[in-house]
């Protein structure tokens, strides 16, 4: 089963193979592993990243968040069979970590740090009528496309004065997502309810990071995470949006490195 999963996933590793700790970085919905480029380059030890199904260079279409957790388990089995693990998830990536905790809590015996970046444990908004209508058309597209056209729209997911190159990069990633994954995972986000799974992280050093101007997973969602994990460090970035790995890559890397 693991080999079948890994056959369709684009996995990239970097850093020393002899390191006793590996950071596994999970990107958000409509993004890809390059979201973490600047963060990964600043981390000590070994780093593993991969494109979620239907995103970036990975094959496959839509999947449930539970199935994305299965993919993460397969990546850990193949690429991090031994040693300590630090899991860092941005948005959908953080939700995938929660789903793994719900389904495979035994795997967290080797997890010595978790970073939950601009994410949520549930109660995200339902699809609007416009989204449902657009979804019927988008789901048929091999790729969403229109990267240049959607660049201005992606600007709203960033905070104050972002690098315009980062906004363009985010739009290009969204455009390279398959229509099936774009639509299917958007609906999955509305079904995500995993507050109870956070109990698995209770004794693991954890940092919760939030942008005060995040419009996709507003800061109240991060406050719920922090309340459920009273031992976690809670970091708020004023005037920063949803794209923390791009907007505050240096500080995000520093905080993940501290967990390593």
Automatic annotation (TrEMBL):
UniProt entry tagged with the keyword Lipid metabolism: no
Chain ranges of the AB hydrolase-1 domain: 24-254
InterPro entries: AB_hydrolase_1, AB_hydrolase_fold, AB_hydrolase_sf
Pfam families, A to Z: Abhydrolase_6 (PF12697)
Key words, A-Z: Hydrolase
Single annotated GO MF: hydrolase activity
Top-rank lineage group of the source organism: Bacteria
The keyword Hydrolase is annotated on this UniProt entry: yes
Protein name (Swiss-Prot/TrEMBL): Alpha/beta fold hydrolase
């Amino acid at each position: 089963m693991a080999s079948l999963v890994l056959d369709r996933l684009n996995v990239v590793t970097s850093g020393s193979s002899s390191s006793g700790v590996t950071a596994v970085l999970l990107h958000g919905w409509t993004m890809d592993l390059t979201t973490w480029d600047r963060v990964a380059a600043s981390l000590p030890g070994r780093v593993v990243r991969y494109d979620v199904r239907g995103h970036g260079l990975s094959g496959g279409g839509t999947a449930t968040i539970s199935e994305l957790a299965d993919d993460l388990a397969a990546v850990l089995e193949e690429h991090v069979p031994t040693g300590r693990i630090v899991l860092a998830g941005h948005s959908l990536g953080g939700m995938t970590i929660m789903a793994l905790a719900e389904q495979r809590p035994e795997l967290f015996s080797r997890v010595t740090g978790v970073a939950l970046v601009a994410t949520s444990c549930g109660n995200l908004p339902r699809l609007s009528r416009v989204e449902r209508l657009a979804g019927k058309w988008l789901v048929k597209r091999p790729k969403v496309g229109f990267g240049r056209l959607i660049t201005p729209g992606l600007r709203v997911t960033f905070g104050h004065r972002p690098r315009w190159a980062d906004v363009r990069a985010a739009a290009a990633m969204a455009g390279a997502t398959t229509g099936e994954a774009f639509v299917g995972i958007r609906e999955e986000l509305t079904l995500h309810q995993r507050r109870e799974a956070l109990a698995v992280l209770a004794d693991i050093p954890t940092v919760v990071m939030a942008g005060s101007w995040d419009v996709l997973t507003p800061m109240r969602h991060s406050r719920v995470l922090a309340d459920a994990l009273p031992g976690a460090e809670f970091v708020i970035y004023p005037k920063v949006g949803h794209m923390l790995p791009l907007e505050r890559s240096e500080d995000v890397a520093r905080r993940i490195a501290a967990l390593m």
